[in-house]
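On clarity, I found the account of how folds are encoded harder to follow than it need be. An entry of this sort, consisting of the sequence and the corresponding backbone structure tokens, reads as follows:
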Amino acid sequence: MNILETKDLHHDFSGLKVLFGIDLQVEEGERHAVIGPNGAGKTTLFNTITGTYHPSKGKVFFKGKDITGYKPHKLARIGMGRSFQITSTFTRLTAFQNIRLAILAKHGIRFNLFRYVDKMKDITRETEIMLERVNLINERNVPAGLLSYGKSRALEISMAMATDPELILLDEFAAGMSRDETHNAVAMIRKMTEGKTVVIIEHDMDVVFSLADRITVLHYGKILATGKPDDIRDNQDVKDAYLGDLHV
């Protein structure tokens, strides 16, 4: 069963066409990578799926339901989470406070409503469990703006995961990370996404081929190929357009 589909998806910016009839199918429970050279349309595709942009043509379906044009907050409520290419935490709040905000949102709780005070102990415990899962418990009281880059990215991913989405989209989560940070992030994502569906945009081919069950290659706003990692690695059109002689 496909949890996410796009059908004949197009997008343009004031006449500049970026996506040309994208038909993407993501199966429930798989880790699906979207790769391609800079300018291929990867982030535009994510932004169109997640409601930041409205497609100029075509439809987006989540669990068979037409969600075309749904705003990000509405998508979060129905089970879709996303991290961004640029870190988007609240830099003045601590790691604990950032994750707690995401968990409060999951439970539909506004923090300033005193009638929910009895639930705060449960919220606190849930927040601490998430901090432990992403190895940020020692940074519990550190403002997000003072975290290392790798830990800041881990915090952002944990915030996306804290809403307990069925589908999570990760936009270049390893960008700017050291080798060790990338290794830790891959291990964290593998552990935290068991039983969930993940779609990633990523330039690091080691990350892509170690995580992905299937890969879709975008080229100039069109799908060039979709398949299992070995199929993509051996695809001559993909080599010519993107991978070249990379040994991945």
Notes: The first helix runs from residue 42 to 49. DSSP finds nine helices and ten strands in the chain. The radius of gyration is 18 Å.
